[in-house]
Description:
A hairpin with a 3-residue loop joins strand 3 and strand 4. Strands 1, 2, 3, 4, 5 and 6 form a six-stranded antiparallel β-sheet that branches. The chain is α+β, with helices and mostly antiparallel strands. It has helices at 10-20, 42-60, 62-69, 143-150; strands spanning 23-28, 71-82, 91-101, 105-114, 119-132, 137-138. It is 27% helix and 32% strand.
Amino acid sequence: MSAPESRPSLDETLRAFRQEYPIHVDIPVAWGEMDSFQHVNNIVYFRYFESARIACFERVGYTQLASELGQGPILASTDCRFRIPLTYPDTVTSGTYIGEIGESDFVMHYAVLSHRHGQGAALGSGRIVSCEYKAARTTPVPEGIREQLSKLQRDGCDRTPTGAVAWAGGR
């Protein structure tokens, strides 16, 4: 009879998650985020993704550029694959890395890790378009932003975590 497989500690899991997702934000789960089904409402996961996305924009200088020049990022599409229900009390780490970078857009990959469960709770992605706000038209991703984004890219940008973090129901 084999011994039961031990799970990594939360510290080990967080360390692996933060290596995989270079932009990450710790967020306490609020009581008010739960719905009548006694779990965090699905829309809240998109807010967790948003927190990581905005942290990324701040890191690469996109928020400053947007306020100075009126050119910045617009979320064109987003999706989420839910893995486990979250409940209060908990803390999550929402993380992101950059996938494909096009001429006027790029893809961000997201994940939400539950500290309480020590595993991934959701995976998602978002397509971000560079936009000139007043003219309401797409523009090329500014070269300086593109350079900073490329530093946050991960090889094999296919939405599949590397395996360092446990995911309910597999990947």
